[in-house]
Amino acid sequence: MTQSRGQLAVIATPIGNLGDLSPRAAEWLQKADILACEDTRMTRKLLTLTGLRTSAKFMPYHDHNGKTMRPKLIDAMASGKLVALVSDAGTPLVSDPGYKLVAACHDADIPVTAIPGPSAVLASLAAAGLPSDRFLFAGFVPHGQKAARTAFTEFADLNVTSIWFESPRRLGATLQIMIEIFGDRMAVVARELTKLHENFHRDTLASLAEFYAQALPPKGEIVILVSGIIKDEEEFDAATLTAMLRAEMQATSLRDAVQTVTQISGQPRKMIYSLAIDLDKKN
Q1: What whole-number distance in Å separates Cα of residue 21 and Cα of residue 12?
Q2: pLDDT of 103-131, one tens digit each?
Q3: What values do phi and psi take at 262, rounded to 5?
Q4: Order of strands, sheet of 82-86, starting from the edge strand that comes earlier in the sequence
Q5: pTM confidence score
Q6: Could you write out the DSSP letters of every residue in the chain?
């Protein structure tokens, strides 16, 4: 097919399972004139493992060189070259700098197409068992407790499932901060997505934090999903919560009652626990 002008293809690549590389993505990786890669070594490895051959020129494109590389890539496409943009894994532009290249293409009237495929965000959401009708991807959890608290606070009052990337070694500490900001909501820790040891740990934030505070840091990439605030949260005033606790404490322990009411109301566990203690003293 004769190409009168260049084009940019944003290509999704496997996040763990090589079988997830689509035929269309494979076709583009082989026919592109230039492969703009987050890490050229990772892209070469992908081509080797999948048995794909290409005569394309490999060009690194990432946070640190984007300003320099964008004009070169734009010039190449303006002269008729086909450029494929790939990240190390998953869909480009999801937590990487590719959007600036896409924007530059639109500004230069260069066609852009997407080759959809693997995404850690959508894969984790699909198997998490949390509300998926409304969700927001928040990117990587910021380093530092103050920055993390600020980021979580932006999402705490939203009725959407929030999705976060995190490193294994910081998982326990991050879950503790999430409890403080979100309250004890349902959440999921997803790891090793699409790989042999893929795992979805679904529980309340309190239970997850307790588990990962005692366990060794898990292996593999981590995605944390947190359910949104309950729509009818304003109905759970102190009197209502106390009544709910009283009913639960007649049949279960104080600790179990607190956990149940926290899950149902979506209110902070610390507040529920304080109400339960007051109620227990009166009884």
Answers
A1: 8
A2: 999 999 999 999 999 999 999 999 998 88
A3: -65, -45
A4: 57-60, 34-37, 82-86, 7-11, 112-115
A5: 0.78
A6: ---SS-EEEEE-B-SS-GGG--HHHHHHHHH-SEEEES-HHHHHHHHHHHT----PEEEE-STTTHHHHHHHHHHHHHTT-EEEEE-SSB-TTSSSTHHHHHHHHHHTT--EEEE----HHHHHHHHH-S--SSEEEEEEPPSSHHHHHHHHHHHHT-SSEEEEEE-GGGHHHHHHHHHHHH-S-EEEEEESTTSTT-EEEEEEHHHHHHHHHHSPPPSS-EEEEE----TTGGG--HHHHHHHHHHHHTTS-HHHHHHHHHHHH---HHHHHHHHHHHHHH-
Average pLDDT over residues 183-191: 94
Q: Are 120 and 223 in contact (CB under 8 A)?
A: yes
CA distance 163 to 152: 11
How many CB atoms sit inside 10 A of residue 121's CB? 23
What is the average pLDDT score of the chain? 91
